[in-house]
Amino acid sequence: VGNSSVLTCSPKSDMTMVTWRISPEAGSLCILGYRTDENKTERINCSDSVDWKFRPDQDLALEIRQVGIADEGNYTCDVASPDGNFPKTYHLTVLVPPRLILSCDDHGNPVCKAATGKPAAQISWVLESNSTPKEEGHANGTVTVLSKFTAYSTSMINTTCIVFHPTGNQSKSVVC
Predict the structure, then answer these.
(1) In this structure, are residues 18 and 80 in contact, taking their beta carbons and an 8 Å threshold?
(2) Domain boundary residue among 92, 108, 139?
(3) Which end of the chain is more exposed for a tag (fewer CB within 10 A), N or C?
(4) What are the pLDDT digits (tens) for 62-100?
(5) Which residues contact residue 86 at a Cβ distance below 8 angstroms, ignoring those fewer than 6 apart?
(6) Which domain holds residue 31?
(7) Are residues 81 and 136 in the same domain?
(8) Same domain, 171 and 109
(9) CA–CA dist 153, 79 (Å, integer)
(10) Which run of H or of E encompasses 58?
(11) Judging by beta carbons within 10 Å of its beta carbon (0-12, 13-18, 19+), is residue 23 exposed, middle or buried?
(12) pTM of the model
């Protein structure tokens, strides 16, 4: 999320038309088209963040700027030539790194939160705990995971929470 993504499309020497069909999981179909005989492009129902990377007569790549969760979906490039159509489909999945929040509750127990990540993060503690993480889904597709550390002994001084996520792992320590 927040980065740019470029999807490539292979040209054919005798191509007559290229069409990018963008089918987001939420929202309506967007179409970018290019006719080689007229050197003409067409845009139908596309946001400003989706466009040709360069001029389509030079490069057929599609660029998605500032990728957001709403950009998830299928992206199909279809190159037409006298030999037929040559489609290539990408499925774009957007990852959102969670925010790690580590605090102490009213009873002096450490609480680790991996807030608004996509997909849901995994939480573990450096020292063994019998905590069961709880997940809360949000309307935008992100998930917050909460884990309370429950110590087997009360002689704890420093507790470390580790959050595992495809965008990178994080850890923080706290003394409660």
Answers:
(1) yes
(2) 92
(3) N
(4) 999 999 888 999 999 999 999 899 999 999 999 999 999
(5) 10, 12, 78, 79, 80
(6) 5-92
(7) no
(8) yes
(9) 65
(10) none
(11) middle
(12) 0.76
